[in-house]
Design a protein that fits this description.
single chain; 113 residues; alpha+beta; HIT family, subunit A; five-stranded antiparallel β-sheet; 5 strands; 19% helix; binds guanosine-5'-monophosphate; binds zinc ion
């Protein structure tokens, strides 16, 4: 997807503060952090949103959560954290490449919506 911001970050065309990378996923710090730790985890394959997750491509979602567990440990999130994926207009998704926000390092808001 040539016009996708996160595909450009994955391709190295736009720099990022990378925290983890392997063959199938990339994790990098959010440019506008909402918490002391705010990391985005994305599949390298372009999946527009969680609407597009299927039995064919859902393995990467499980892998992302495996790495979330490792990063939470590495980032010292021993008192808890939050994982969010925004989807579509009502979910206020602004970048249309599936991503998971890992946020922590403070007591987060009790409000989810
Ligand atoms: P969404 O609103 O789609 O769930 O989340 C998109 C996230 O991407 C936002 O938290 C925003 O701050 C982050 N973001 C947007 N542009 C960039 C960028 O160029 N680099 C990084 N690292 N994060 C970005
Ligand atoms: Zn993309």
């Amino acid at each position: 997807m040539s016009d996708c911001l996160f595909c450009k970050i994955i391709a190295g065309e736009i720099p990022c503060d990378k925290v983890y990378e392997d063959e199938t996923i990339l994790a990098f710090r959010d440019i506008n952090p909402q918490a002391p730790v705010h990391i985005l985890l994305v599949p390298k394959a372009h999946i527009a949103s969680s609407y597009e997750v299927t039995s064919q491509n859902c393995q990467v979602v499980g892998h992302i959560f495996e790495i979330i567990s490792q990063l939470a440990e590495h980032e010292g999130l021993h008192n808890g954290y939050r994982v969010v994926t925004n989807c579509g207009a009502d979910g206020c998704q602004s970048v249309h490449h599936l991503h998971f926000h890992l946020m922590g390092g403070k007591k987060l808001s009790e409000q989810m919506g």
